[in-house]
Amino acid sequence: MKIITTISEMYDHSDRLREQGDRIGFVPTMGFLHEGHLSLMRKAREENHALIVSIFINPTQFGPDEDYDSYPKDLESDASLCREVGCDVLFTPGADEMYPQGTLTTVSVAGLTETLCGASRPGHFDGVTTVVSKLFNIVRPHMVYFGLKDYQQYRVISRMVQDLNMNIRVIGLPTVREEDGLAMSSRNAHLYNDERAGALTLSRSLDAAREMIREGIRDPRAIEKKVAGIIESESTNRIDYVSVVNADDLTPLSSIERRALLAMAVFLGDTRLIDNTVLEISGD
Predict the structure, then answer these.
(1) Quick one: average pLDDT of 60-83?
(2) Which fold has domain 2-173?
(3) Domain with CATH 3.30.1300.10 in the chain
(4) For labelling, which of 38, 245, 255, 271 has a CA lying 20 to 30 Å from the CA of 149?
(5) Dihedral (C-alpha) 42, 43, 47, 50: value to the nearest 10 degrees?
(6) pLDDT exceeds 60 at position 32
């Protein structure tokens, strides 16, 4: 596995791959890798000639009171995991390499970024789409892979690629969970014992919402109320949002007709976790 730290070297390597006809699969990450990331890498390894993974903790997607400085890091372990799954290139630029003169240009996707995490983290998605577009321009992949735990991010990046004619296939893969149901996240490392127990209410509440759909309940507010009650049953938990929205454009729903997204963000102490499920109605 080759480790590349500069944009110029990454340009040259990707150019050589493309010139010899190799299809490039790309998995952008912020590091502190877990099985969720590795599942994306394995799929990319399976479907492409070359697998490139990036590790870059992007400062522009963090707000002033968020956890940029404390975001977990372990580059040595991450590199070892990347080797094990057959990564060809690990791209690890620093902030000075990615933003040598700051940035005056921002990529922004309207519409999909005003709700859910976009409402509670102003500017977050501008930071995401700007850095992802930079990474796409540097790595020049054919296919890119994202986890659906960050469902809104997946929809936003898919729309950016479509609108900007990037000629990249964006693949979304299912959320990977711990044995007890907690969605895998790098931020899980920050949870204390009681917070870890409280975090299990997120997946339990998703199960309850799916059961309500099976019972014929179609009222988004009723589902949100039930889910919020389960989450707030643990004193460690503080809800940022619980919302049922259209699964395609992320707009609010008055009734669930066919397919909806139930998404949530919850603080456990200082740690903010997200989770979601798509509520499918079959046979209606």
Answers:
(1) 95
(2) Rossmann fold (3.40.50)
(3) 186-278
(4) 255
(5) -40
(6) yes
Nearest to 56 by CA among 35, 36, 78, 41: 78
CATH superfamily, domain 186-278, is Pantoate-beta-alanine ligase, C-terminal domain (3.30.1300.10)
Cα distances (angstroms) measured from residue 178 to each of 83, 87, 196: 23, 24, 12
- 37 annotated active-site: yes
Going by their DSSP bridges, the two strands 50-55 and 89-91 should be labelled as: parallel
pLDDT band at 283 (very low <50, low <70, confident <90, very high): low
Contacts of 72 (CB under 8 A, 6+ apart): 31, 32, 186, 187, 189, 190
Q: Rounded to whole angstroms, how far apart are CA atoms 238 and 240? A: 7
- Of the chain, the percentage scoring pLDDT greater than 90 comes to 97
pLDDT, tens only, 252-263: 999 999 999 999
The count of other CB atoms within 10 Å of the CB of residue 177 is 15
Burial 266-276 (b: 16+ CB within 10 A, else e): bebeebbbbbb
At 282 the pLDDT is 79
Closest CA to 37 of 96, 95, 84, 98: 84
Q: What average pLDDT does this structure show over 143-163?
A: 98
Query: What is the three-class DSSP state of 278?
Result: strand
Q: Name the pairing type of β-strands 24-29 and 50-55.
A: parallel
What is the pTM for the complete model shown? Answer: 0.96
Cβ contact 58:30 at 8 Å: yes
Whole-angstrom Cα Rg for the chain: 19
Catalytic residue among 37, 124, 142, 190: 37
Would the pLDDT of 214 be above 80? yes
Cite the residue boundaries of each domain of the chain with CATH code 3.40.50.620: 2-173
